[in-house]
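Give me structure tokens for this 139-residue protein.
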Amino acid sequence: MSMTASGRCLCGAVTLELSLGNAKVGACHCSICRTWGGGPLLALESVEAMTLHGETHISTYASSEWAERGFCRRCGTHLFYRLTSGEHVAVPVGLIDDGRAWRFEAEIFIDEKPAFYDFANATHKMTGAEVFAAFVQQE
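Here you go.
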């Protein structure tokens, strides 16, 4: 079931429109996501299409050999994480504030999660190795 959603950065210079495959939210515990945002990244992982407006205010950073992160140059809001191959985009769920009933269902890089926090939800958990193996199988 496809759905649409929209959001914006803190200053409003960048807006985005999304087509989503579902209402699932996932958490990434990798050290890069935790450094980027100060904690786990809670993101919409089923982005089928993303349209960005205000492109002149968007910068990207190659955070690894395989992925980049986008942010607003004016206010610093995190906008997206995407594989450089273009096959996967994740958008921070906090950008979409429309009261939707999101479902927190998955956690990745669980082997990098610090011991000082836990989520109460029962989720599907994958280690970093399992995540990379799943992407290889999709190719």
